[in-house]
Amino acid sequence: MIPEESKKGEKKSKGIASWPEDERPRERLLRRGAQALTDAELIAILVRTGLKGTSAVELGRQLLKRFGSLRAMVEAPILALLEVKGLKGAKAAQLAAAMEVARRVSLPDRRVRVTLKDTRETTEYLQSRLRGLSEEHFRALFLNRRGALLEDALFAAGSVDQARPPIRLIVARALQTNATAVIVAHNHPSGAAEASESDRLFTEDLFAALKPIGVKLLDHVIIGQDSGFSFADRGMMEEIALTLSAR
Questions:
Q1: What is the pLDDT of residue 110?
Q2: Residue closest to 138 by CA, chosen among 192, 185, 81, 189
């Protein structure tokens, strides 16, 4: 009869700890750098442990197979991670946090003053913030007279109905930041960058709310998967200004 301790030892030997040191992801990372590891091995270090009969590296491979790529994992909502067998709350949270860090690293450095001079620069900046998200996000950019970005704020996230913030919140933030101009933007996770009638009405209402406090609404930008839509470029901001002045 095999002693109980030996049985436990056999179970342990199936994990990464039983691998030769040269093959363990963490040890290889420390010796050779993170670039020496495969995608699955990097994920294994983040989740730390696998599950019964499955090593952390194998769990990493399964995650990559399920989502298709690391980029797709970055874009996946936390609920999608929680659906994966072996990813309990803590593991899913660690993985989601690491993916969000990676996404934020790709954004413009906040220590560098961003100046938005035209629609092209604005669209490129907003694409870095909004493209590839699985939910609709609504952001507002607050600018000074020279076009320097004073604040970039996320006001809402969720479905189409949920991602439409109260106008009074944007007006209040414009006063707090002492902005002279505002650009608002949201993304279309479906990929199509086109303005709806709801988008137009919201833009008109926001324009009217900002005007009495001396803040100009410069644009409303919609970010799709591969393109952007600008109210200003389409002449719609001028139309809104004329409509309101005629009332």
A1: 56
A2: 185
- Give the residue carrying structure tokens 């970010």: 223
Average pLDDT in the 221-234 region? 92
Half-sphere exposure of 125 (CA within 13 A, CB side): 23
Residues in Cβ contact with 83 at an 8 Å cutoff, skipping those fewer than 6 apart: none
Residue among 236, 209, 208, 210 at smallest CA distance from 222:
236
Q: Given 3.50.50.60, 3.40.630.30, 1.25.40.10, 3.40.140.10, which CATH number is that of 119-245?
A: 3.40.140.10
**Residue partners of 185: CB distance under 8 A and separation at least 6:** 126, 129, 130, 138, 139, 140, 141, 220, 221, 222, 223
Show the CA angle centred on residue 45, arms to residues 42 and 48, nearest 5°. Answer: 145
- pTM here is 0.61
Distance (Å, whole) CA 18 – CA 12: 7
User: What confidence category does residue 79 fall into, taking pLDDT thresholds of 50, 70 and 90?
Assistant: confident
- Looking at per-residue confidence, does 119 or 70 come out higher? 119
Q: How many CB atoms lie within 10 A of CB 121?
A: 13
